[in-house]
Automatic annotation (TrEMBL):
Xref: SUPFAM superfamilies: FMN-dependent nitroreductase-like
Superkingdom of origin: Bacteria
Annotated organism of origin: Litoreibacter ponti
Domain Nitroreductase: residue ranges: 42-246
InterPro entries: Nitroreductase, Nitroreductase-like
Record protein name field: Nitroreductase
Gene3D superfamilies assigned to the protein according to its UniProt record, in alphabetical order: NADH Oxidase
Taxonomic lineage of the native organism: Bacteria, Pseudomonadati, Pseudomonadota, Alphaproteobacteria, Rhodobacterales
Family per similarity comment: Belongs to the nitroreductase family.
PANTHER family: NAD(P)H NITROREDUCTASE YDGI-RELATED, NADH DEHYDROGENASE_NAD(P)H NITROREDUCTASE XCC3605-RELATED
Amino acid sequence: MPGTPNPLSEMGNLEHVVVAQDERPNPSFKTTALPGFKKTVQGRRAIRKFDGEPIPDEVMRDCFDDAILAPSASNLQCYEFYWVRDAQKRTRLSELCLDQPGAVTAGELIVVVSRVDLWQSHLKKMSDIMTDGGRKPFKGPVRDYYENIVPMLMKTDRFGFHNLKRRLMFWYRGRSEPVVHEPVTRADHRIYGHIQASLAAENLMLSLAAHGYESCPMSGVDKPGISTLLGLSSSAEVTMVIGAGKGTPDGLLSPRARLPFHELVKEV
């Protein structure tokens, strides 16, 4: 890889430090935050039927504010939320969700979209934000990471030249040291985008729950049709649709069921 041998390993000793504006997790969170968080996580369910009442604008906007705080690889935030408010579009979107009750009865409908194609513009915008418009330029490994590593990982072309270049580079470096082994295909970039979008979607649903509202994520939908409805470019991909609102008593299809802890958590 270009630049320093391993910029990621040098991130712990940075000249460019961003001071957190919000309180970071600390022991006090166990009493101030944990009870509410547990209640939110345990209370969030996929609700299949809502009462149809819209969620107040200020609540929705606050939930979106929480959603975009989700972790994002390289802070590129390669996703978009489409809050569908137009009545005709909502009706058509419900049809494209196969008339699932979670869409038809929802007070709000949000389409979560992966936008890996925006990585370059997002990188520039985030760099401007993080460097105060270039007045506080990146230094050392941070500069190498954002100016060299990220473009090297994200660049694509219609002939697959960049993917082949990465594949050979990862193979060569991987013979003698630990190294990332993707992205080397278009599918790798697609997976990356849907992961970023899904992380933000989970934040949105948890925030909705904390505000007293319920949600229903739906991936079994007509994604090409939704893309056409929203006028998305061919490089944008629908990750899921989220129905949200006040759930009805019969909105839960069954009691909560999960696989045993030991089948999902492996201690090694």
